[in-house]
Design a protein that fits this description.
heterodimer, A: alpha/beta, Rossmann fold, 6-stranded mixed β-sheet, 4-stranded parallel β-sheet, globular, B: Rossmann fold, 3 domains, 5-stranded parallel β-sheet, 15 strands, 11% strand
């Protein structure tokens, strides 16, 4: 991949000076802890110098969530035919109810369960333990929602602290109910971010789900699974048609609009296609080691990356798929050109800064660039070294890379770099909009979407254009 | 993995799906649903620290500080930002596994020092998540030690509240945090014989900044000086003018400290401030009154008359005119809402207000759900229903029942509309009835928090919302021959 052209005004020196000035406000110890997490990009370096996946520095206002958020919100919650039980006090389940936009098919309460199921722990449950309550609760849930294909138990902080044994309960209940009953020890205090919640969830899929079901039909040569797409704003529904159009057969989606039994049978596919590497690489590696299923990272944001990805996917298959891929690319070219013709003239030369979870800070760069927007800074809430290593080549030299950025840091960075757009989350959104900086939520697609695939790019381009060019920004300063 | 354990994929037949789809709407299902003992489905309440954070935001220069897991802080902040579409800056000391083993003192030390240094707050209200509550962290000692070690200034107010999530709801956290802040700020500030001449007004856990502005309007019209405890209006309804202000408003700490010498104290949501009011009763000078949330005409009348009585000021003619306009709106529109049945869900104080308004309109509060409250509240609400033999007697109150119970009720015994926060939208959709959004949180409509629903103007607003929606439905769904110019 060719190195990015330098961005006007962005130099290593300027970036490093900015980092130094920003950190200066912190007490010495906190400065030392934060400094390794901020850096100027060196695209040629063998490894990204920015450190990651370390504990949050207390008090600085990190934007991170917890392991439970990673388990319930990210990995488990999107599986549509499972009753997901938030096991513990009331709050966690309420706050994560319907707030991620992982859309699902089905009849709510009948065949799909976008509801908040909780054991609503009270003082007595803390004192006497919640195992008996959990057992009863699972029975009640199965009786009231008989078409569920399984139940998951997602532990909140107190469960692990009081020494409950949810694994024993779920084992017993799986036998009794004759369907998946899956424990997930994702207490919020575990690990340093959502990321461990993803890992723990992957492990619970490994230990309790994968390989336990089989597709009725024999594996075909074009069978694939879609991994790490959570169907935010309908992303899965924009991705699957492209894969089908090139002749592939999508047997399961992990986990957006997912079905637990298909997930359990995924070990029969020929290739795993992974979008969000951070949250699901673990299970790809397990399936590779155990069943020899290869996996491939792909990127469905923006036409450049879609084409690159489709061609890389085609390489794994025969000439039929290769031909199809070229046909599909050719077919969508005029549509993509029309999008660029409409929006690029209004966006060319603009800059943006990003701060999202574990994938989009690098995966969306190409889509912005397709529109003529350059990314001057990017970073992750909960990525690891391998994510940063994948990020560095996508960014121009000297651009700002920030890990687990805290509120004051990002504010200062944006103030200095003055991007035309900030793409981040709900907690950051209004901070920047008050300052008159256009903003899009990049976790939830700001209640829009899908952004994946060809159809998604049309919507992405429209949304970015309306954010940056909304006439409302011209009213921010009063004329008097 | 041996192949023996592998089972084929299962599929439900369309007939089976159809059967269950119909079954969950039946009385048989309702019976099973109400027999639940362990499982809670779609509750209409949140946990204590959320309420604590709302109070903390309402003081000038205050940086809400979560002692416990960082994920909780992110959930609270996101919830406020989704509802108000405003920043909700709060921090946490990010306790993790080692904190669970050794206690959270080191996290608190580092967190307080960093938060103070970076964000320069005037006050750091501290509240807890379940984690330190389960392991039994001693906040009194921890905070004292932090000051002894000079990590934060000795004179920085650091009120703290224990807000375990496994006890009560967000309204109890509101109470505990407010009490802690007032105890902290007023310590040593009571001056015998001094009277500020001001009213202390405690609005309670109210996600409607328009309501708070409406209270201020009344007090200004009546020329009554006041201190709102706590005032979230400018924090959660702040301007967009090109400058982000982390501390965008809130009650000044000096005023809050002096509130102990006030002329009178009124709490407008009794279930949000019982402990605070009990303490104020014994410590504050001046008169004290606990009044219901002034929704509808009578409760607004009572509020204004109480103000008039406490401050010996007449209710201005303008307000009498405003009342008259509200009553005019109600008489004009009564025909569209009279006799209509409503399902209502929410916090206790809001429920009392909504029910009161419905009864005034001749509407029927039919299924009333409070997903966590007490027998005492149930009795109070029942007494309110009993005041109206014609409309109130048809209502049933369900305490500690959730929105999945409410769904059953609405399917087996239908109503015309549902009133409650965003979470009620699922019931509304299944029951094919309109949903009138009121309460907290409202995450799917704009500017609801800016539109007051209390007082005379609020009564007009709420009435307009309901009636026009019913009229929209008529226009959108009626057959051609019933489509008319006038309604």
């Amino acid at each position: 991949m060719a190195e990015r052209k330098p961005i006007k005004g962005i130099t290593k020196e300027r970036t490093e000076k900015l980092i130094e000035e920003t950190l200066a406000v912190l007490p010495e110890k906190a400065q030392k802890r934060r400094a390794p997490h901020l850096g100027a990009n060196e695209p040629g370096a063998s490894s990204c110098a920015v450190k990651s996946n370390k504990k949050v520095v207390p008090g600085v206002m990190s934007q991170r969530g917890c392991a439970y958020a990673g388990a319930k919100g990210v990995v488990w919650g999107p599986i549509r035919d499972v009753v997901h039980v938030s096991h513990g006090p009331i709050g966690c389940g309420v706050y994560s109810w319907g707030t991620r936009r992982n859309l699902m098919q089905g009849i709510p309460g009948v065949t799909s369960f976008p509801l908040d199921f909780t054991s609503d722990f009270q003082e007595r449950d803390i004192v006497y333990g919640g195992d008996i309550k959990l057992e009863k609760l699972l029975r009640e849930a199965d009786e009231l929602f008989p078409l569920n294909k399984g139940l998951s138990v997602l532990s909140e902080c107190p469960v692990g602290l009081i020494g409950d044994d949810i694994n024993a309960v779920t084992k017993k209940m799986e036998k009794e109910l004759g369907k998946f009953v899956i424990p997930c020890n994702c207490e919020g205090f575990r690990g340093v971010s959502q990321s461990l919640g993803h890992h723990i969830s992957n492990d619970s899929i490994r230990d309790h789900v994968i390989g336990k079901r089989g597709f009725k039909e024999e594996t075909g040569p074009y069978d694939v699974a879609l991994i790490g797409d959570y169907n935010i704003g309908g992303d899965v529904w924009a991705a699957i048609p492209i894969l089908e159009e090139i002749g592939l057969n999508v047997k399961a989606t992990w986990t957006g609009d997912g079905e637990i039994e298909k997930i359990a049978a995924t070990n029969a596919v020929k290739l795993n296609l992974i979008h969000c590497y951070r949250s699901m690489n673990y299970m790809c590696k397990v399936m590779e080691e155990k069943w020899g299923i290869p996996w491939l990272e792909y990127n469905f944001f923006g036409p450049t990356k879609i084409e690159e990805s489709l061609r890389a996917i085609a390489e794994r298959f025969d000439d039929k798929i290769k031909k199809n891929v070229e046909k599909v690319i050719k077919k969508y070219k005029p549509m993509m050109q029309a999008v660029l013709d409409e929006y690029k003239p209004r966006l060319e030369g603009k800059t943006a800064m990003l701060f999202v979870g574990g994938l989009r800070p690098r995966h969306t760069v190409g889509a912005y660039e397709d529109l003529g927007i350059q990314i001057t800074g990017t970073g992750y809430e909960f990525a690891h070294q391998d994510d940063y290593d994948r990020t560095s080549p996508e960014m121009a030299k000297g651009t700002l890379i920030y890990d687990d950025v805290s509120e004051f840091e990002l504010e200062k960075f944006v103030e200095e770099f003055k991007p035309d757009l900030v793409g981040s989350g709900i907690k950051e959104k209004y901070v920047f909009q008050k300052a008159g900086v256009p903003f899009r939520q990049l976790h939830s697609w700001d209640y829009s979407g899908p952004y994946h695939g060809y159809n998604g790019f049309k919507i992405f381009a429209r949304d970015i254009d309306m954010a940056i060019n909304s006439p409302t920004w011209d009213l921010v300063k009063a004329p008097f | 993995m041996s192949d023996v354990a592998v089972r084929p994929l299962t599929e439900h037949s369309p007939e089976e799906i159809e059967r269950v789809k119909n079954w969950i709407n039946t009385e048989e299902y309702q019976e099973k649903n109400f027999a639940r003992e362990a499982l809670v489905i779609n509750p209409a309440h949140a946990c204590q620290p959320l309420g604590a954070q709302m109070v903390a935001h309402g003081f000038e220069g205050a940086l809400p500080f979560v002692h416990g897991s960082q994920g909780c802080a992110s959930y609270f902040r996101s919830t406020f930002s989704r509802h108000f579409r405003e920043p909700a800056s709060a921090t946490s000391d990010a306790m993790t596994e080692d904190g669970a083993v050794f206690g959270g003192q080191n996290n608190l030390f580092e967190g307080l020092e960093n938060a103070y240094t970076v964000y320069k707050p005037k006050m750091i209200p501290v509240y807890t998540t379940c984690m330190p509550e389960v392991i039994g962290d001693d906040l009194t000692a921890f905070i004292r030690n932090a000051k002894q070690k000079e990590l934060i200034p000795e004179d920085l107010p650091t009120p703290y509240a224990n807000t375990p999530s496994f006890n009560g709801t967000h309204i109890h956290g509101y109470d505990s945090m407010l009490l802690a802040i007032l105890q902290n700020l007023t310590e040593g500030k009571k001056v015998e014989g001094r009277c500020t001449g001001k009213l202390n007004l405690i609005p309670g856990f109210d996600g409607n900044t328009g309501n708070l502005r409406e209270y201020k309007k009344y007090l200004e019209m009546m020329d009554i000086p006041y201190t709102m405890l706590a005032d979230i209006t400018d924090v959660f309804d702040s301007v967009c003018d090109g400058t982000y202000r982390m501390y965008a408003g809130g009650t000044s700490l000096e005023e809050a400290a002096d509130s102990i010498n006030g002329k009178a104290t009124i709490s407008l949501m009794k279930y949000c401030s019982p402990h605070t009011m009990k303490w104020i009763d014994s410590e504050y000078s001046g008169e004290k009154a606990v009044l219901p949330l002034p929704m509808g005409i009578r409760k607004t009348d009572a509020f204004l008359m109480k103000l008039s009585e406490l401050f010996d000021k007449p209710i201005p003619e303008e307000l009498k005119t405003e009342r008259g306009r509200a009553v005019d709106a109600m008489t004009d529109a009564h025909q569209y809402i009279h006799g209509k049945k409503f399902a209502v869900a929410g916090d206790p104080d809001y429920l009392l207000g909504i029910v009161s308004f419905l009864l005034e309109m001749g509407a029927i509060p039919y299924h009333i759900i409070c997903s966590r409250s007490t027998k005492k509240f149930q009795k109070e609400l029942q007494a309110l229903l009993d005041t109206s033999p014609l409309y109130g007697s048809q209502g049933s109150i369900y305490i500690n029942r959730d929105l999945w119970h409410l769904r059953s009720l609405c399917m087996t015994d239908p109503v015309d509309g549902i009133i409650g926060d965003t979470h009620c939208k699922w019931v509304a959709r299944d029951a094919k009835i309109p949903h009138f959004r009121i309460g907290f949180p409202i995450m799917d409509r704009v500017n609801t928090h800016r539109t007051p629903v209390i007082g005379y103007q609020g009564t007009i607003n709420f009435l307009t919302l309901i009636v026009n929606k019913f009229l929209d439905i008529v226009d959108e769904t009626c057959e051609d021959q019933w489509f008319e110019m006038m309604r």
